[in-house]
Amino acid sequence: MEIVLELLKGFGRLFMHPLTYFFILVAFFIGLSRVKRERKNFHVRVFDFVLELKHLFVPGIIIGLILSVASVLLGTYLSIGTIVLMAIFTVVLSGPWTFRWLSPVYIVGLTMIVSLLIPEHTGLTGILGKWANEARQSDLPSLMVLLALLMLAEGYLIWRWGNRGTSPAIVTSKRGQDVGAHFSQKLWVVPLFVLIPGNGLQELFSWWPVLDVHHQSFSFFFVPFSIGFFQRVQGMLPVHSISMTGKRVFFVGIFIALATIAVFFYPAASVFIAGFAILVREFITIRQRLRDESSSFFFSKRERGLVVLSTIPKSPAEKMGLGVGEVIMKVNGIAISNVQEFYEALQTNRAYCKLEVADVHGEVRFAQRALYDGEHHELGILFVQDYKKRKPAVV
Q1: What is the pLDDT of residues 296-314, one digit of tens each?
Q2: Distance separating alpha carbons of residues 360 and 134, to the nearest angstrom
Q3: What whole-number distance in Å separates Cα of residue 350 and Cα of residue 375?
Q4: 340 burial via Cβ count (<10 Å: 0-12, 13-18, 19+)
Q5: Phi-psi category of 314—alpha, beta or left, where left has phi over 0 and alpha has psi -120 to 50?
Q6: Residue 321 CB: number of other CB atoms within 10 A?
Q7: Which residue among 141, 179, 335, 372 has its CA within the 20 to 30 Å range from the CA of 236?
Q8: Lowest mean pLDDT among 9-13, 75-79, 118-122, 257-261
Q9: Could you tell me the pTM of the whole model?
Q10: Residue 315: what are its φ and ψ, rounded to 5°?
């Protein structure tokens, strides 16, 4: 019972860990950068700058609890030096202010590789020397188990949560045409309880829990791991493209988890499996980008109708159920083919709006709603064309 209470207290200590505030800082600046891009493209902020912060701890905390149980049952343990080395890679890979490299494959994989390259005599003294020696003696099977568990979590998070709140953008194709795209940039904090060999932490903090396993002492240590994700989509619906990426990462995680079994018999195989995981994860990213760039643009100008690039949250368009990728064919019974015609048709009835919409499967439906004073006069729909005074990014 005492261990359970300490585990619950551990979640409270999440907000005492310096990495937690570092992740909040990174998510904050990424949100500001996104808002700046949205204003440049559409003269309006699509999502609040706290969008990235909203997804920072949910559902990562729940997944972290599940992974903690699995990690402890599998006997995974890490030294303080190993944890410090992973924290260093986390900060370094966050340097470009992007979540592109904050995959557990890169963080844990590089930790394993670098730990083998640390010389026996580093010349460091004191606590730094102790941490370097602990990192050099990292338990490779434990790191491999951690990599597999976090990769499974990464795949699931991308699959189920990566397509939520994607940010629209207007970019310029190689032919000089304005086309629409969506950006998904997420950061999840997945806090894990890991075992630390010895009872050194209890010597510093008398309240720190210690677990005895086979006459060996282990201390519980709470580590907020990060899982980052970045993907640009322009050749298909974001929900389909991002979910596909998540499924691929998840199934690779299953393969890595099965391959980890061999590590308990041949610890040296850890480096090869970790290297393989890094290559495959990078291959998934590159393959998605090349396939997306070679596909025809999904959000582009059409001869008939206007493609909905996105809708502003809580706007009339969102309340009418308009979805990303749908095509507005008529407004108040008037056929449209550009933004100017859309606005003119909308003004024919300022109290009521009726839209003829073709969904992504080509099926036509009607969306209608009364309009009220104070609501967005353009319904809160974002299209690809006719946004002036902006400098679109180049694809």
Answers
A1: 899 988 888 999 999 999 8
A2: 55
A3: 11
A4: exposed
A5: left
A6: 12
A7: 335
A8: 9-13
A9: 0.88
A10: -90, 165
